[in-house]
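Archive record
______________

***
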Amino acid sequence: MRAVAYSIRSFEKEPLAIANRKKHEITLISNGLCLETAEYATGKQAVIISDRDQITPEVISRLAQLGVKFIAVRSSEIHQVDKQATSQHNMKLAVVSPFVKKDGSTSSLNAYYTQCANETIQNLDTWQNERCEGDSCSVAKDCGSHIISNELRTRLNA
């Protein structure tokens, strides 16, 4: 799958490259996703964003015009993405699960970025293999991940 990852910081590059194992063609850029930088998604099927990117309906519309079908968020937060707009443009959206150790404590930053990278690549793998099934997607499981698909349009509009 061809993707562009926005808002990449230097310490995120290695975990993402290791998790990817050259399976997907991912362009890494440090710029955040906005209307002006959406053009980097030309020819890409997916965008990978951080919790710092504010994804407005205008940005989503532009991404859809460019052919983007998937948005992977490198965070367990999804508040920065206009979910109704993603649904209206038939885009799929996935987040990574929050990382908590078995003893209940939070992880080290290194472990957190490794998990984010692994789950982000897992989401791309799932989409590429056309295994995403909306609310019942195998990515969602019980891990806290959340998939927004066309199926949720009715609920989002309610």
In short: The radius of gyration is 15 Å.
